[in-house]
Amino acid sequence: MSTAEKKGFCWTKENEALAQHHIAKYPEGRQQSAVMPLLDIAQRQNGGHVTVEIMEYIADYLDMPAIRVQEVATFYTMYNHRPIGKHHVQVCGTTPCWLRGSDKILAAIEAHLGIKKGETTADGLFTLGEVECAGACVNAPVVSIGDDYFEDLSPERVTEILDMIKDGKDVVAGPQNGRQTSAPLGELTSLTEFVEKA
Amino acid sequence: MPTLTIDGKEIEVENGITVLQACEEAGVEVPRFCYHERLSIAGNCRMCLVDMEKAPKPIASCAMPVGEGMVIHTNTERVKKAREGVMEFLLINHPLDCPICDQGGECDLQDQAVAFGRSGNRYEESKRAVEDKNMGPLISTTMTRCIHCMRCVRFSTEVAGVTDMGSLWRGEHTEVTTYLGKILDSEMSGNVIDLCPVGALTNKPYAFTARSWELKGTESIDVMDAVGSNIRVDARGAAVMRVLPRLHEDVNEEWISDKTRFACDGLKKRRLDRPYVRRRGKLEEASWSDAFAAIKKKLKGMKGAEIAGVVGDLADMESMLAFKDLLGKLGSKRIEGRQDGAAIDNAVRAGYLLNAGISGIEDADYLLLVGTNPRVEAPIINTRIRKAVLSGLKVGNVGNAEDLTYAVEEFGDDKAILNAIISGKHAAADALKKAERPMIIVGQGALTGEDGAAVLKAVRDIADTYCVKDGWNGYGMLHTAASRVGAMDLGLVTKGGVDSILDDASADKLKAVFLLGSDEIDTASLKKTFTVYIGTHGDEGVQNADVILPAAAYTEKSGTYINTEGRVQRTEKAVFAPGDAREDWTILRALSDVLGDTLPYDTLAQLRDALAKAVPAAKTLDTVPTEAWGDFGTAGDVASGGIAPTIENFYLTNPIARASETMSQCVDAREDIAGEATGTHG
Ligand code: FES
Ligand code: FES
């Protein structure tokens, strides 16, 4: 029995299958390449964060040194090392979002939830954080909540969304201003006519 | 063989090397921090930027392989600016606390800042600070100084073979650390101190005791094991402050073990600095003449057959020869050089040497270890084996299964396996047969049992069958004592070995026993026997001694040692022996004078001449000899049974190490991590 097992973490049956599915993507002997998806699966199984025990469990599982797992898990900001609330609210604060008002978004969330960056609400529902570019700049400002992106936000809309989530209502992720994905809002502004090839 | 132009000079270099190495060959200096020729390439410090024609921006020369027709410039304005820029970035978060930094004066960062940096600093914001890490009793950390070259991480992973270090977090928050702040589980950990190009990792026991420019360096040889690592002994006044490695490609490359580096504080503790004579059961301080007189009185009328001598693990050849000659003059030929009782046979020189040499391990393609744990018996050799394993060597082991930091096929801890290998009916036999350059290394543990001589014979027969071929002698013996090969060359072997000497002493058949730094035997049997101890420390040897003659340690004399390969090397005197202590051979000569038959050498040079006559092999310095193969060991039954490890604790193998506070701290620290691993702690 490995040290981690003694301390309690062990794959659920489904997650074990999922882990094996990821390991199988890599050539024999290169199972270590699956460390990132496995950390993610473990983080989800553990309710949102990874622990030393989990990192050691994965190190054992992939037959790699524990420090190498820890290096990966600390390098990427998607892995949390402290317990987080049920919904992880991450506000993008990088330049495009910032130019489009991410400061106001953040302030609105802080005021609405009564917490600051890095904190979790008393009811354990929300943890607030700021991240660098979420990769959806065209729809700035952007906030990710759990696995979903909420884009084209206004301070009012983001508080609404938080309330809906709190009340367990369905919210549609994506642009919040009615546009379709990243298509222009309203009329076409360029490439307005379709030109047949001569 | 590509040809490239470096700063206008054409040079043809080997294929596959890097631009940085090519520059070195062309005699052009390129600054660097992360690059190290014995570690993998990281390319993360960017200090080695040079201009390559046709490249849009400067290239990291340490990571760029050479190509035909490359034109490299290292002295353009752009290169100068690039270096200044990198330097400036490196210094942004560096605390610049040089006046209180132990690296000061021998710091790459300092030197390169002077040579390649800007004169001023434009950074006015606050610097980051990083919490220091606990890296045990040997390595002191100031992590704010770290520039993230990752040399220590690469060293521990690649060379030491313990993946205990890494870098956590990212960007501004990057921190180099050991796993969960534990100590490095390695006998080679101290080398990260030398590798660290800044003052982040420094020598903890040496911390704040000296500035590097106050030290006088003496090139010498280590005696903590039988490797003969090349060292530099740094002393200030009468005190040895620290020990550093010296480069020797065929012996220790540029590494030394932690014992070699850190046991030197034991040179100051528990030292014998004046003669003692036991009067009415109590040891009392005495003058040299009183001590000699006491010996003379006791020896009067004693027959040669009633006198014996035992030589310890740290003795140099000059001392051993003088010791042998002195006892010879007293009529005794009974001098034992194998304190541990190993059944080494000195009939055939090849029989007690590591014939292929340490670097020869890299030529081997299969290695069978018999009763040896090289990781603690000779960490440097273990490191070499690991290096060879990484490039294809396969290793098998008969004996205790230990973590040697590389993959080992364990055949089991049973001597009887040797019989099966000789008869060819064993997996190890197949492997040896298949190998082109098979090697077998036998350790002292295998030779110390009742059937030691038979084990030696069995190993010899295996070697004879598989490992000795045209131009290749793959047989090797791994010694643990610096003195051992020399003692064998001097013929210091007796029938029945050290056990019989001790038995005869307790049976009163021996009336006088001389110990030359012999501290690893149980001297309780010498209680009744008149015992003269010549040595350095108040250790086991003095427990039952009647006369104690204080001698010089390896840093305090020039002495000849022959390492486990048969390589002859000399220590040099770095400091004077403390108090009244004298160099061993001068003590023996003075004593012979008092006893009425003076040894025929007045100077060290004359003694060396005598040594060269007694042991011609001792003449040729620093080469691995080619010795004729022959028959050795004693045919006999090799009984089934395990092999006892010869070293119980790596950190406590000799009187200097046992006197060292640092070494005992290491013992505690290692016990702590061992305790955690098995869950027996707390
Ligand atoms: S800057 Fe916010 S998504 Fe890119
Ligand atoms: S030496 Fe080339 S990048 Fe560090």
Automatic annotation (TrEMBL), chain A:
It catalyses: a quinone + NADH + 5 H(+)(in) = a quinol + NAD(+) + 4 H(+)(out). Keywords: 2Fe-2S, Iron, Iron-sulfur, Metal-binding, NAD, Translocase. It comes from the Bacteria. Binds 1 [2Fe-2S] cluster. Its cofactor is [2Fe-2S] cluster. One of its GO terms (cellular component) is catalytic complex. InterPro entries: NuoE-like (IPR002023), NuoE_dom (IPR042128), NuoE_N (IPR041921), Thioredoxin-like_sf (IPR036249). GO terms for molecular function: 2 iron, 2 sulfur cluster binding; active transmembrane transporter activity; inorganic cation transmembrane transporter activity; metal ion binding; monoatomic cation transmembrane transporter activity; NADH dehydrogenase activity. Pfam families: 2Fe-2S_thioredx. The keyword Translocase applies. One of its GO terms (biological process) is inorganic cation transmembrane transport. [2Fe-2S] cluster binds at residues 92, 97, 133, 137. PANTHER family: NADH DEHYDROGENASE [UBIQUINONE] FLAVOPROTEIN 2, MITOCHONDRIAL, NADH DEHYDROGENASE UBIQUINONE FLAVOPROTEIN 2, MITOCHONDRIAL. Belongs to the complex I 24 kDa subunit family. This is NADH dehydrogenase. It comes from Kordiimonas sediminis.
Automatic annotation (TrEMBL), chain B:
The keyword 4Fe-4S applies. SUPFAM superfamilies: 2Fe-2S ferredoxin-like, 4Fe-4S ferredoxins, Formate dehydrogenase/DMSO reductase, domains 1-3. Residues 1-78 form the 2Fe-2S ferredoxin-type domain. It holds the Pfam family NADH_dhqG_C. Binds 1 [2Fe-2S] cluster per subunit. The keyword Iron-sulfur applies. One of its GO terms (molecular function) is 4 iron, 4 sulfur cluster binding. GO terms for cellular component: membrane. It catalyses: a quinone + NADH + 5 H(+)(in) = a quinol + NAD(+) + 4 H(+)(out). Keywords: 2Fe-2S, 4Fe-4S, Iron, Iron-sulfur, Metal-binding, NAD, Quinone, Translocase. It comes from the Bacteria. Its cofactor is [2Fe-2S] cluster; [4Fe-4S] cluster. Residues 78-117 form the 4Fe-4S His(Cys)3-ligated-type domain. Its EC number is 7.1.1.-. Residues 215-271 form the 4Fe-4S Mo/W bis-MGD-type domain. GO terms for biological process: ATP synthesis coupled electron transport. Belongs to the complex I 75 kDa subunit family. NDH-1 shuttles electrons from NADH, via FMN and iron-sulfur (Fe-S) centers, to quinones in the respiratory chain. Couples the redox reaction to proton translocation (for every two electrons transferred, four hydrogen ions are translocated across the cytoplasmic membrane), and thus conserves the redox energy in a proton gradient. This is NADH-quinone oxidoreductase.
